[in-house]
Amino acid sequence: xxRVEGLTKIFGGxxxxxxxxxxxxxxxxxxxxxxxxxxxxxxxxxxxGIYSLSSGEIFLEGEKISKFPPEKLARRGLVxxxxxxxxFAQMTVLENVMVGLHTKSKSGIFSCxxxxxxxxxxxxxIREKALYWLEFNGIANLAHVTAGNLxxxxxxxxxxxxxxxxxxxxxxxxxxxxxxxxxxxxxxADIIVKLKESGVTVVLVEHDMELVMDICDSIVVLDLGxxxxxxxxxxxxxxxxxxxxxxxxx
Amino acid sequence: xxxxxxxxxxxxSGLSTGSIYSLIxxxxxxxxxxxxxxxxxxxxxxxxxxxxxxxxxxVVKLPIIAAMLLAILxxxxxxxxxERLAIRPLRKATPLNLVIITIGASILxxxxxxxxxxxxxxxxxxxxGNEPLFVGGATILPQxxxxxxxxxxxxxxxxxxxxxxxSGKAMRACSYNRNAASLVGIDVKRMVLFSFAISSAMGSVxxxxxAPLTMTSYDVGVMLGLKGFCAAIIGGMSSGIGxxxxxxxxxxxxxxxxxxxxxxxxxAIAFIILLLILFIRPQGIFKKAExxxx
Amino acid sequence: xxxxxxxxxKFLSFAVCILLIPLLISGGYMMNVxxxxxxxxxxxxxxxxxxxYAGQISLGHAAFFGLGAYISGVLTVTYSLNSWLAMVxxxxxxxxxxxxxxxxxxxLKGHYLAMATLGFGIILYIVFNETVAxxxxxxxxxxxxxxxxxxxxxxxxxxxxxxxxxxxxxxILLSLNLANSRIGRALRAIHDSEVAxxxxxxxxxxxxxxxxxxxxxxxxxxGSLYAHTMTFISPASFGFNFSxxxxxxxxxxxxxxxxxxxxxxxxxxxxxxLLRAFQDYDIIVYGLLLILMTMxxxxxLVRGVPAILYSLLPVKKQGSGN
Lengths: 250, 294, 322
Known about the structure:
The complex is a heterotrimer.
Chain A: E1 2-11, E2 14-24, E3 29-33, H1 40-47, E4 55-60, E5 63-64, H2 70-75, E6 78-81, H3 93-100, H4 109-113, H5 117-136, H6 152-165, E7 170-174, H7 182-197, E8 201-205, H8 209-215, E9 218-223, E10 226-231, H9 233-237, H10 240-246
Parallel strand pairs in A: 3-8, 3-9, 6-7, 7-8
Antiparallel strand pairs in A: 1-2, 1-4, 4-5, 9-10
Helix pairs in contact in A: 3-5, 3-6, 5-6
Chain B: H1 3-35, H2 42-59, H3 64-87, H4 95-117, E1 133-135, E2 138-140, H5 142-164, H6 166-176, H7 178-183, H8 188-214, H9 220-234, H10 241-261, H11 266-280
Antiparallel strand pairs in B: 1-2
Chain C: H1 2-24, H2 28-53, H3 61-77, H4 83-105, H5 110-130, H6 132-135, E1 141-142, E2 148-149, E3 152-153, H7 157-179, H8 182-192, H9 194-199, H10 204-230, E4 232-233, H11 240-253, H12 258-274, H13 282-296, H14 301-312
Antiparallel strand pairs in C: 1-4, 2-3
């Protein structure tokens, strides 16, 4: 579904990623792991259009998306969440998710300014859908809280709800479990599995090994900007090169 | 005068105004490089230089050198006070806030100047008389030579300061990497203060040497400030030769444009250049290989 | 739905108050000032859409105001075009210009954007001054006809008051609608996290340009109205000082608050009138206001004053007690 070929990224004098190639299968949960500095977030930034790549290609369902900016990728169904959660802090929880439905609506400036009937109908639909996704993630009761005031765990859930509102075919999650306690991580795992069951392809960058081994169908290992190995969780756990690179820690 | 003589004339006077722009532009660059702020009020220090000198000379009747020194001193103090009161407390302000504050300060200083000295234009006496000199068929006033000389002097002092003195090197360190600089023990806040002091001093000097030629009044700062900014942009915000070349280029283009095309649109030339550079090559034309200033 | 309803009530009561004011005022002079408040309100709201919602600085908005005024003036005086038609042409032309300019200029951020808009504003100001054959240059252009509908001519202050304020109320209403819509959310999202907004599919660049153009169109309409009510325009009204004044109005009222822009416009238009004796001090007051508001009340009066009042209230708790 998502294929990366020969991806290389050089920042000034630093080669962050070198000739990375792998494929993500549709409908699976894939984990991308590797020691710190392996280039995982850089990889995500490139795939999600925030950084440009130095060389290589990226394909989404066969279409070459290497140079697509984030807004174009969103319309192709590719969405991404951030390690440090990028919420719209001054907007309410509900409004945050409503922005997630931006691509699912089309009222322009004229229609909105003059409150044309088409726009009103659309607004209602957006609001309903947004509430639906909040419920899906169990935070519907926080709908009118200002997003910036949320405790971290709920902020994460909000970001995911917002991403889901986009109705993506593939979602990239950058360290979703970072900063979550055990209960919240379990909640997260449930949501990710529910996502998979509804047909969404999930790719995670994670350090929480338990989570990764638990829910991922396949794993890609990066180290120092290079792809080290790919395989099922079992295969990766037994791969000597991976063990060496990592010294097996969560 | 035939055309080529006219052109030489325009170029020479353009170089002279360009030098002024260079000095003002350097002021912008120095503050920008140490704080990331564009000080909209920079032009007002230029104004203060000229107006204060006029005031001390004509009203308080001090000898000219004393008047100039006092003017520079006061302008520098205003710059320092401004940094203390308005800039320092706002370290975590958004760029929008900073823009607004520096604009507010510029208006305030301008308004106070208007209240104290009125709206009249004044001029300072030429430093060494009005007798024009003839260079290659063109006329230069001695004041032009003063401008070149003093600008050159300041640029040299600048270079020495920034490259050979400890505090100068410290300031450059801050501009390259604030955090690293503070980690090695450089007092970043002090450096910021210095940069404001230096910029306002330089600005006021620019105002003083220009005033005999271009007159001075409470609102000369706006245009001069903007053109100085333009010079800095052309030079890629470099604290050195880039901005100087930018200023000279701007002065010459402006002078040629005004002389050969139309004088009414003279001021527009600088801004058209500004827009073109910002649109096409925002990193400036004369930016040296030393990277990542911004 | 309940929330929407209270917004409507708020707007309607505001509109009713505005429309009833002439009945309380006697004296053409005050009426004239209130006409100015109306024009400045349109300008401030238009700028707020760009500055407060889209988060883009513009120090050259007086230029759009001037463009609207001059295009209207020239078309009606020199070419005897129908005034309403001239207004439409002025608005669309200015909008088109802003749209085209928007693409390169809104690539810039922060200080650079501020300087670029400033430069643009000054270039237009110089053009107004220099194209004497068309605009009359620094001495201005006079003889601009009043607007009229059928037999109703808008030729005195009271009639102009209603004319301008109908436009102002419409502008406020449209802006409120926009703010509470998908577009408004997208704008606020850009403000909070541009990268996340893009990730949600918001076409940031295009949206900024659209708002820039809309803001310009509204400003041009205000310019047109200004030209027809004053019947005389000169470049002095459309320079850098006025651009700064507009920014001050928006900041004082509160970025992102439509009613705040009205407040800012009203204050900055009325205050100089009330302090007539201190005519020349207004420039200092603006400077101080800008600095102090940004330092101590960044949310503007609309948020700052209630906050202060709230903090001054004794803590009221259930039950009595001393």
